[in-house]
Amino acid sequence: MPNNSSVTMFILLGLTPDPPKQKLVFFIFLIFYGGTFVGNTLIMVTIKFSRTLGSPMYFFLLYLAFADFCFSTTVAPRLIVDSLSVNKIISYNECMTQVFTVHLFGSLEIFVLILMAADRYVAICKPLRYPTIMRRQVCIILIVFAWIGSFIHASSQIILLLKLPFCGPNLIDHYCCDLQPLLKLACTDTYVINLLLVSNSGVICLTSFLILMISYVVILHSLRNHSAEGRKKALSTCTTHIIVVIIFFVPCIFMYTRPPTTFPVDKMVTVFYTIGTPFLNPLIYTLRNAEVKNAMRKLWNVKIMTK
């Protein structure tokens, strides 16, 4: 904790102060987090042990599932436990750690989505050069750079946040530690730091979203030269990716590309992209992807046969 802060802990107000609603929150998000855990773990295990899912697309999908799982885990378990707690206390160090991990795994998901778009671009627009360009070594290097970029982003956010003095009050009108609620509690002028913090996350979200949308427009435009069967398969894969991009980026852009202020709807928007999106992604990728479903069935049948 920095020397210029007298606050050693924060009190989270949660999603609702109403006890019956808190119990409802407990059961709803326990189901959501359970589904996130099972869905993303199933995808990671299937890709890891399946012989048919060895392409770069599924290599990146494995890391997307990992990022989803970790991203949700930084927020969901505490929300579930706090929904049954009278005093929702989080220490200063725990709060800063939560901010760091949320931005670490959130930005990792963004970079992995960009890599998945790049993979589809090469596969559809440069099919003859695809095996050469998207070699296993290249994919590993790209993932390493994604981790490095995520760490740099999260570190830059937390370093700026650690410089702020917190002298009281210590009530956070949220269910987790996030930039805007914490900036409101700082006992100093936060205009410049807020500009740096929000522009950092905002620029990453907005720029990445535009890059992804433009890349998928280019990919879809290039499909006119493919066969009907090839168009159908590529269109199904790209549609899945576009759905994931939209449901993740739209809430993030709303949160991080605006002036320093908070709205009542912020909590629900944060719920959507920190808990809802990691829950929906496995459903989207399994329900719309025949190869993943077939690989899961084969692995399940093998496990049953070996018992």
Automatic annotation (TrEMBL):
<dbReference type="Pfam" id="PF13853">
    <property type="entry name" value="7tm_4"/>
</dbReference>
<feature type="transmembrane region" description="Helical">
    <location>
        <begin position="57"/>
        <end position="80"/>
    </location>
</feature>
<dbReference type="GO" id="GO:0004930">
    <property type="term" value="F:G protein-coupled receptor activity"/>
</dbReference>
<dbReference type="InterPro" id="IPR017452">
    <property type="entry name" value="GPCR_Rhodpsn_7TM"/>
</dbReference>
<keyword id="KW-0675">Receptor</keyword>
<feature type="transmembrane region" description="Helical">
    <location>
        <begin position="100"/>
        <end position="118"/>
    </location>
</feature>
<keyword id="KW-0807">Transducer</keyword>
<dbReference type="InterPro" id="IPR000276">
    <property type="entry name" value="GPCR_Rhodpsn"/>
</dbReference>
<dbReference type="GO" id="GO:0004984">
    <property type="term" value="F:olfactory receptor activity"/>
</dbReference>
<feature type="domain" description="G-protein coupled receptors family 1 profile">
    <location>
        <begin position="39"/>
        <end position="285"/>
    </location>
</feature>
<keyword id="KW-1133">Transmembrane helix</keyword>
<keyword id="KW-0812">Transmembrane</keyword>
<keyword id="KW-0716">Sensory transduction</keyword>
<dbReference type="InterPro" id="IPR050427">
    <property type="entry name" value="Olfactory_Receptors"/>
</dbReference>
<feature type="transmembrane region" description="Helical">
    <location>
        <begin position="268"/>
        <end position="287"/>
    </location>
</feature>
<comment type="similarity">
    <text>Belongs to the G-protein coupled receptor 1 family.</text>
</comment>
<protein>
    <recommendedName>
        <fullName>Olfactory receptor</fullName>
    </recommendedName>
</protein>
<feature type="transmembrane region" description="Helical">
    <location>
        <begin position="201"/>
        <end position="223"/>
    </location>
</feature>
<keyword id="KW-0297">G-protein coupled receptor</keyword>
<feature type="transmembrane region" description="Helical">
    <location>
        <begin position="24"/>
        <end position="45"/>
    </location>
</feature>
<keyword id="KW-0472">Membrane</keyword>
<feature type="transmembrane region" description="Helical">
    <location>
        <begin position="138"/>
        <end position="162"/>
    </location>
</feature>
<dbReference type="GO" id="GO:0005886">
    <property type="term" value="C:plasma membrane"/>
</dbReference>
<keyword id="KW-0552">Olfaction</keyword>
<feature type="transmembrane region" description="Helical">
    <location>
        <begin position="235"/>
        <end position="256"/>
    </location>
</feature>
<dbReference type="InterPro" id="IPR000725">
    <property type="entry name" value="Olfact_rcpt"/>
</dbReference>
<keyword id="KW-1003">Cell membrane</keyword>
